[in-house]
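Morning run. Coffee first, then this:
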Amino acid sequence: MAKPIMAKATAVWLVDNTTISFKQIADFVGMHELEVQGIADGDVATGVKGFDPIANNQLTQEEIDNAQDSALYKLKLKFNAAAVGEEKRRGPRYTPLSKRQDRPASILWLVKFHPELTDGQVSKLVGTTKPTIQAIRERTHWNIANIQPIDPVALGLCKQSELDKAVQKAAAKRAAEGGVMSDDERRKLVSTEQSLEMEAEPRIPSAIEGLETFTLGGTDSDDGADPRGDADYSDADSFFDLPGGDDDEDEQP
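And here it is:
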């Protein structure tokens, strides 16, 4: 439903000049009922001058009369033929000035870890232009040597849900085209919710990689058992009795 311009000022005018309920005003201007009540109590919109919706061609007197007669009546914004087609333009996402220097790093992260994303998808995620994306893809960007890839979600340039949606869309498109993905690409296309539910895979330290099946040499008869495992060591002399000795050679003349 379309909302009136200067919604808070319109709510101030309706509270001051009509007997319409707070709920009706809140639904019309897109505010919470308690916020409209705060306007009536003087706690909200202090110093805001009322904006007459009738004089500014947003409401008719008939609409206001109907709303005052019935608490269930919903105010309807007056149709303005001049506003037809004045929808919000589609284009790259707006990026605040404080974060614009982070866009190259996020673009590099996206093209490196999600190469399946199109330039249009990357542009919508971080709010940049296609020539910039192409320059980073081809590593012809003027500052490419100093750019380090950083997750755009961590930089606050987009939401994780938006990134997941774009990745899933790219995966579906690639599957429809019959493209074959590698194992690494499949892992990248898993959504955040799915990856968080997965069990962690056991990792082998890099120092012993390749030695998983390595065993020490030995005869089958050893079986890793201690030949003296069943000996009785309750007596101290038997504990220090070393095997392989010859009693006759150890005796002194």
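The chain is about 40% helix and 0% strand. Good start to the day.
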